[in-house]
Amino acid sequence: MLKKTLLALSFAGLAFAAFAQQPAIKRTPLQKTDFPDGYTTLTAIAEVPPGGAAGRHTHPGIETGYVLEGEADLLVEGQPDKHLKAGDSYLIPAGVVHDAKTHGDKSLKIIGIYVYDKTKPLATPAP
């Protein structure tokens, strides 16, 4: 029994280490303003390295964006997966779980605009 427990803990530790070693997403805020009333509008550049993903999350407002460089698969709950490439734009409704996974051997670079409830955090992880 002790061996099984130790083995399970070892695998859990390896899984955590693998997750922790995934490439980080770089976010660069460009402009932020409290507008319209009760909301914050944020314009930012997000970069996801090759093999990376944003992770499943939601926003308390809409996200719209434009792909500057690279390619990704955009997975929006309740919608068919969408393959994005440089020059494409997208819109994600408020509160909808979504993720973006890079495609190919190049980083993904987008300009995103978020209009969200200023009393809530910009993003919340989703299971």
UniProtKB/TrEMBL annotation:
The keyword Signal applies. Residues 1-20 form the signal peptide. Keywords: Signal. The keyword Signal applies. Coiled coil: none annotated. Residues 45-113 form the Cupin type-2 domain. Pfam families: Cupin_2. It comes from the Bacteria. This is Blr5704 protein. It comes from Bradyrhizobium diazoefficiens (strain JCM 10833 / BCRC 13528 / IAM 13628 / NBRC 14792 / USDA 110).
